Every structure is written in structure tokens, then in C-alpha cells.
Amino acid sequence: MMATEALLAVERVHLTLGRHPVLQDVSLQLKPGEVLTLIGLNGSGKTTLLRVILGLVAPDRGQVRLRPGTRIGYMPQKLPIEETLPLSVARFLTLSQRATRAQLRHVLVETGALAVLDSPLAALSGGELQRVLLAKALLREPDLLVLDEPVQSVDVAGQFELYDLLGRIRQRRGCAILMVSHDLHLVMPTTDWVICMNQHICCAGPPEIVSQHPAYRQLFGIDHGRVAVYHHHHHDHKHDTHGQVVKPEEPH
């Protein structure tokens, strides 16, 4: 199998739920090591497409092909947690898979959440929980990371830090990433390709091209002043799992 062949191929997928068309003639390809982001408004079919790719929903027509042996790590959009549930982060990470204490520490170090290893899951902040969910996905040693709104419930500073983290994970592990986002400009430094959806594919290409495409600009109302674009400037500090600035260590 050549390295340039598709890891994932979605071919002309159609899906209707009730009487409402949700996906119409959707096709995409993702190669090893690439990052592909699905963007669109609420109800555009992004999360449903992920569910089809994961095999949780069968399409009416079309097919999804994965390279044989592909391991998938999935990070859901959100995880409802009962506040009284006596579940630690360590226990949560091993609910559906076995892992040693060393493996748990490794993935939590990688996602910047080692400090919460033995904390109650219900006590985590939004940023901490997202990093723990990402760590759980990484425990599967995935070839493909599927991330549904990975910066949900995280402030803007924390969102950029998480997207930077995803970029480092891609570089370190060589895995492909398929993720959903509402904001193209947040993911532009991280993603290779963008698909703009509204039940069908409105436009697709590199993020700089999609950001100027008339279909994208019309869908998000950019030319009518309904969207304020936030430009991120790289800086020389980092944020912790709460989104707070981490002070650099004093030189010895």
C-alpha cells in the first residue's frame, strides 16, 4: 500500500432522516498525516457525516472505505457528566480499554493534563475535560483522529492552544485528523484542507482558498457584516488547562 493512498474515502454519500435530507452526494478523501476540517452552520450535517464515517449510521446510498487495519481515535463533541458520579480521570480513561499507569501518564503529558490524573472527572474545567477526552482518543494509538468540535466549552485563548496541540500531535504521531469546527479562521494554521458543508459540499480546498470562496462567504454572512473575524497572533507564552497564561520558568 503506497503512503499516498487514501486512509479514508467517502464516496457519494446520501442520507435522509425522516423526510429531511441531511447529506447529499458527499465525497471526500483523507490521506495519512493530513488534517481535514469540516465547517458549516448548525444542522449542516457535519456531525452526522462523522457518525456515518464511524459506522454508527448507515447511509442511504454511497459508501465509506477505510484502509484495512486503520485504528480510529474518536473525541466526541461533549460528554454529559453527572456531578455526583464518583469517577476519576484515571478510571474514566480505562473504562473501555486497558492501559497501564505509565500509559495514562504518557497521554496526559502529551495533552497537557497530567495534573488531573487522579482528579474527579466531574470537577474538571471545560479545557481540562477536552484534553482528557483527547488523551482517551490517543490511547488507541490511532492512525486517524476523529474530533467533533474539539474546542467545545473552551475560551478563545484555550482554543488556539488546543489547535496548536493538535498540530504538534499530528507532527509527532503522523496520524491523520478529521475534525469539525464552526470557525475557519481558528483552524487555518492547523488544517491542510477544508470542506464547507450545508448538507452538501458548498466548496472545498486549502483554508486560504475556502476563506475567499463566494459560497463560504455567503453561508457565513461575511460580506454582509454578520461575522467578525478573529485574527490570532502567535505569542511567546502558553496557556494552562484553564486558559490562563503560564509564566515562564526563571533561568537557573
Structure in words:
The chain has 252 residues and is of the alpha/beta class. 27% of the residues lie in helices and 25% in strands. The protein has 8 helices and 11 strands. The chain has a 6-stranded mixed beta sheet, with helices on both faces. Strands 2-1-4 form a 3-stranded antiparallel beta sheet, covered by helices on one side. Strands 10-11 form a two-stranded antiparallel sheet. The radius of gyration is 19 Å and the shape is globular.
CATH superfamily: P-loop containing nucleotide triphosphate hydrolases
CATH class: Alpha Beta
Strand order of the largest sheet: 5-6-7-3-8-9
Structural class by sheet pairing and helices: alpha/beta
CATH architecture: 3-Layer(aba) Sandwich
Mean pLDDT: 86
Largest sheet, in brief, is: 6 strands, mixed
How many alpha or pi helices? 8
Give the termini distance in whole angstroms: 50 Å
Summarize this structure briefly.
This protein has 252 residues and is an alpha/beta fold. Helix content is 27%, strand content 25%.
Task: Tell me the layout of helices and strands.
Layout lengths: L7 E10 L2 E11 L4 E5 L6 H8 L7 E6 L5 E4 L13 H5 L7 H11 L14 H13 L5 E5 L7 H18 L2 E6 L2 H4 L5 E6 L1 E6 L1 H4 L3 H6 L18 E2 L5 E2 L6
Parallel strand pairs: 3-7, 3-8, 5-6, 6-7
Antiparallel strand pairs: 1-2, 1-4, 8-9, 10-11
Helix pairs in contact: 3-4
List keywords for this structure.
Rossmann fold, single chain, 8 helices, disordered C terminus, 252 residues, alpha/beta, 25% strand, 6-stranded mixed beta sheet
